[in-house]
Amino acid sequence: MDARTRLLLEAPIGRTLLRLAAPNILVMVAQASVGLIETYFVGKLGTDALAGMALVFPIVMLMQMTSAGAMGGGIASSVARALGAGRRDDADALVLHAMVIALAFGLAFSLVLLLGGRWLYTQMGGSGASLEAATTYSHWVFAGAILVWLFNSLAAVIRGTGNMTVPANVTVAGVVVVVPLSPLLIFGWGPVPALGIAGGAIALLLYYLFGTLVLAAYLWSDHSLLKPSFTQVKLRWPLFRDILRIGLLGSISTVATNLSIAVATSLAGGFGPAAIAGYGTASRLEYLLVPLVFGLGAPLVAMVGTCMGAGQHERALRATWIGAAMAFTLTEAIGLAAAIFPYAWLSLFGSDPAMIGAGTLYLRSVGPLYGFFGVGLVLYFASQGAGRLLWPVAGNIARLAVAAAGGWLAIRWGGGLAQVFMAQGTALLVYGVVIAAAIAGGAWFGRVGWPCRTATLLRRIQPGVIG
């Protein structure tokens, strides 16, 4: 057995998760900073440019979260379970299958957003200069959607082996390149023309191109645990199914998450472009929590998946609750800090009083409930490793229903932005509680029952219950 696989099966859980997650979290922050840096420089172009980016951002994050978290989680889970069960040939073959899936989904995103992006941003409240900015940025980003999908899929393959270091190093190197490249292309310098908001999108695509080439080179090198081959592997439906049964369910959850943000953006659009810019800028902090929790969730997927593949179901469950406690502590601390000091975040991206006011209202309404978002998200990753995603999807759909219906009713009954944002906060609470209660009630090991005593739950953990 590979030493990294043995670590996931035998080493102390808390210490191992922290060891794997700490550099991963730092790197995910670095990756998220690419978008923040881009937003910072685009904000210098004016409120309309910032509002245009806010319109596109939920769709960009939908692609990011689907490729890295949903389908990427399915890929990592499949690789981890194959290695845990000793199926090395299947683990090697999963690399090619993951790349085929990435190409198909990347092409689909490009076609849909290039053809229907302008209509979508209009429905979300875009108009005038902000709509033009959104359309320009969207066309450039989604023209290169395949690069985003390939990068995240190859990184997921490597993380599925328990190797967090290589994707981390590639991400950091990419950030070092894109930090000066983004303002250079946005504002121009010397012979380089000023491309405006399109320059930010082009810099982002160059980042993913660089990362994809490096990750592919690693996988086909002697340093890789996996030994993929284009010539010796035939495409097999069972391996596609193993990825897709988790990835597609996870995608439903991801769509629900981003629809919640898109609906809130649309509701804020009724209060003007400054409200869209304020909400979009403030909600970027919520999106920043996603890579933070992903930094913890990626090793949790590998650990839970490897333990499930090896039949160590009780260890997988213990790892899940330890991860949930870590995620709550991290995200709740950030949410409380944002609620107390909202200006420190919002002033990074603009100084328009109306934008600052709307963003402050959001952070003070929703920030104190970020801990529940962190719990729901990390339990989603753990469920990917277990191959059981029904309740995480249900929790996300419940979040969408509360956010959309609550926001709509707030406006219909004469409420303002404060009431719309209160609905978003309540939705996060529902999200975390539903998923945690389901897993605690035995959702991974048969029919859910509340309350579920620990002894009763452990009796359900029988070899072969979970594939």
From TrEMBL:
UniProt xrefs under NCBIfam families: matE (TIGR00797)
Transmembrane among keywords: yes
Alphabetized UniProt keyword annotations: Cell membrane, Membrane, Transmembrane, Transmembrane helix, Transport
CDD domains: MATE_like_3
Membrane topology, record value: Multi-pass membrane protein
Pfam families on file: MatE
Protein location: Cell inner membrane
Source species of the chain: Polaromonas aquatica
Protein name per its UniProtKB record: MATE family efflux transporter
InterPro entries referenced in this protein's UniProt entry, alphabetically: MATE_fam, MdtK-like, Membrane_Transporter-Flippase
Sequence intervals crossing the membrane: 21-43, 49-73, 94-117, 137-158, 170-189, 195-221, 242-268, 288-309, 321-341, 361-382, 389-409, 429-450
